[in-house]
Amino acid sequence: MIQLNTDKNQVVLEGINLKDIDLTLEQNFLQKITQDTEKAIAKMMRVLNEKTKFNNIDKDLMNTLLDFETEKKELKKNIIKTEMQKFFSASKRAFFILSRLNLLSTIDINTKIGNRTLLETIDYEEAPLERIISFIHKEWNEDFKMIVENGKKINALDSMQSMWG
Known about the structure:
Radius of gyration: 22 Å
Number of domains: 1
Order of helices and strands: EEHHHEHHEH
Low-confidence stretches: none
Helix content: 55-70%
Shape: elongated
Strand content: 5-15%
Largest sheet: 2 strands, antiparallel
Number of helices: 6
Distance between the termini: 40 Å
Oligomer: single chain
Strand order of the largest sheet: 1-2
Structural class: mainly alpha
Mean pLDDT: 86
């Protein structure tokens, strides 16, 4: 089991060998949560400081006004939900494309797609494609590993294809 601990900015693993899994997605989530939360809190503190700087406000009251711990937790939850939704939506887009390519292969039209083309098509590069394909396999019980190809030949074809838009 993989668990994100947003309070400590760490990924907690249970029953998983670190060598068996790529945690890029979770690390990106934690980094985004930290950056976006700190940015939002800093903006709120700056606004309150600006609005109160010419008033003689009690120090304890000011500390209470600038205590955003509750808001910080809520922001973190919202950001993680947003990032998970982006991953899920990208996985669905990949599923739609890959299932159609798979359909073509069932009628003896051999089509492959390169990693880069698929990631550009689904407009999501925050997670490795292997992670998206693994998610699709677990979520919708479809294995598309044979449709996705990586190598010099497919990358060259992808580059030519991307030039055409």
